[in-house]
Design brief:
mainly alpha
């Protein structure tokens, strides 16, 4: 059955996400994508003029989809801990249901030659996490002023740690998702010292 141009483009993007997630940008060639999609390379070039354009379309679709999920996931009126749990669940859901897209993010966000949009996604996630970490201080200007510079510096570390934990968990299915997800939330919400002292969050 002949696909419409829009449907064909969507199919090619889906296949390209798998190929870039599996091989990475530098090792993936246009012929890999064409072969996986079951089309000629000439047809692929009708939709995307270069590998760079194809990769930009792939990362653009990933960023748009995940960013929308992150911002829609939490209700600003909910308590901060509830919002943090929903945020973690959204990321774990994304990595679980879209592992190729997650692999594209992890493989490329720290590569300046190809990862600009993906770094923007990481920074956006970091800003959301920082905002939640500061939530219980916003009604006290003095506490907020003291905490904000520290949280600004810690947010990229916390964000990178959560992303690394999710990637590690995908490679270790013997660890339950519930355990990995709760540990991610506890690390952000309680901090390492309080966890080491034996403190844990109660389940909902």
């Amino acid at each position: 059955m002949r696909l419409s141009a829009a449907s064909r483009r969507e199919q090619l993007l889906s296949v390209a996400i798998d190929e870039f997630g599996r091989r990475g940008f530098h090792l993936t060639q246009m012929e890999h994508v064409a072969a996986a999609a079951g089309v000629s390379k000439a047809l692929l070039y009708q939709h995307f003029e270069s590998k760079e354009e194809l990769f930009a379309a792939v990362t653009g679709a990933i960023v748009e989809g995940l960013s929308a999920q992150l911002h829609a996931a939490t209700n600003p009126g909910d308590p901060g801990l509830d919002r943090m749990r929903v945020l973690a669940k959204t990321l774990f859901d994304f990595a679980t249901h879209q592992p190729s897209a997650w692999a594209v993010i992890i493989r490329h966000f720290d590569k300046p030659e190809v990862g600009d949009e993906l770094r923007g996604l990481r920074d956006d996630l970091g800003a959301i996490i920082a905002d939640l970490m500061l939530l219980n201080r916003r009604n006290n200007p003095t506490r907020l002023a003291r905490a904000e510079p520290v949280v600004t510096l810690l947010a990229p570390m916390v964000t990178g740690g959560m992303m690394s934990l999710i990637s590690w968990w995908l490679d270790h299915p013997e660890v339950s998702r519930e355990r990995a997800e709760s540990m991610a939330v506890e690390f952000i919400w309680l901090g390492l010292e309080r966890i080491r002292a034996g403190e844990h969050l109660t389940s909902n």
